[in-house]
């Protein structure tokens, strides 16, 4: 069934899309189906997907094995409550996640979306200090340009400007922010990059429950890449000052930056880890918060010791079943080599953008490529232009960026990089 003009009109009048204005709708494209790295749009156009549906569809769309995992599970049960009940897919997934992450990470909460996984991580940290009788440790410290989700708690630790804190300032808890590191590689490291962070921890550790940040790559807050040394310093300062470390790998997890998790590049381990997005290969909404035995023990030792969270659809069996197959597929594939190839090709093919007058910066890490322009694009023009060029790339603000499915072939990836260069060129003011 193709989407009719009438239906598209209904969509424009009644349905909010992410961050949109119903009074001033931006164009949306109907999608009929998706296969491998292709989306088939209602206008008949087949486009190469550069977004992996926001970092998630790492093996591409309509994957026979992922489809099968869902079919098999649906014969057993689609959903049961997780209160007082458990099931094979959740147990298997938790076991896989514990095996996949650092040895210290041992206790799993299966949430239903990334934002919820972040809320749970924040609560774990607050309950940890409460249990130790230190409830004054109730603030979070983070770096600017971060993104941790759209629920109020998660939002309170997003970048205050891009997260529009001013609009919600009467409601949002006030947390602590320091500039994000500007040091891209360890070779350029010096103490100044950690100075403000260190100062904040030294002066206010008594109020700080945890540091929360995205390791190595800051995603939606600006597609910024920073060096592992910053993370090592953060970890060591957190230990020194009795502050927990929450790493949000919802975007970076499952190989995207070249290692299974980005924190591995700094040889550190968080106290609390949030993962999501690619966990089900883009099939269903699922996320997880994983912590150490120590954090779980401390939370469990005070009062009735309950971790205060429990969404209706937590650990949904269909989502867990497809997540299990997704992780098996990833581990059975030569993913490290594949990400390296994608990275090398992105570096080679996006380099020419640097010369363009409209371009401020080009950044590549693993299977992530971003071209930052000097001024924001006009989405009304640029979005249809990308479709015309045969690709699905969704810019935001000044950023043209891609994080394609890992199965993308070199010639398909070239179509994406060519389209970015073309659009960047068209942004040059005459
Ligand atoms: C997408 C994202 C979230 C929020 O996940 P949702 O599933 O959209 O709620 C949180 N943190 C990071 C780093 C993300 O990229």
From TrEMBL:
Pfam families for this protein: Aminotran_3
Site positions for Participates in the substrate recognition with KAPA and in a stacking interaction with the adenine ring of SAM: 19
Enzyme class at the top of the EC tree: transferase
Record-level GO BP terms: biotin biosynthetic process
Keywords, alphabetical: Aminotransferase, Biotin biosynthesis, Cytoplasm, Pyridoxal phosphate, S-adenosyl-L-methionine, Transferase
Residues holding substrate: 54, 147, 277, 310, 394
GO molecular function: adenosylmethionine-8-amino-7-oxononanoate transaminase activity; pyridoxal phosphate binding
Compartment annotation: Cytoplasm
Parts of the chain that traverse the membrane: none
Domain of life: Bacteria
Main location per the UniProt record: cytoplasm
Any one of the GO CC terms: cytoplasm
Matching InterPro entries: Aminotrans_3, Aminotrans_3_PPA_site, BioA, PyrdxlP-dep_Trfase, PyrdxlP-dep_Trfase_major, PyrdxlP-dep_Trfase_small
Enzyme Commission number(s) of this protein: 2.6.1.62
UniProt cross-references to HAMAP family, sorted A to Z: BioA
Role, per record: Catalyzes the transfer of the alpha-amino group from S-adenosyl-L-methionine (SAM) to 7-keto-8-aminopelargonic acid (KAPA) to form 7,8-diaminopelargonic acid (DAPA). It is the only aminotransferase known to utilize SAM as an amino donor.
Protein name: Adenosylmethionine-8-amino-7-oxononanoate aminotransferase
Taxonomic source organism: Aliikangiella coralliicola
Lineage of producing organism: Bacteria, Pseudomonadati, Pseudomonadota, Gammaproteobacteria, Oceanospirillales
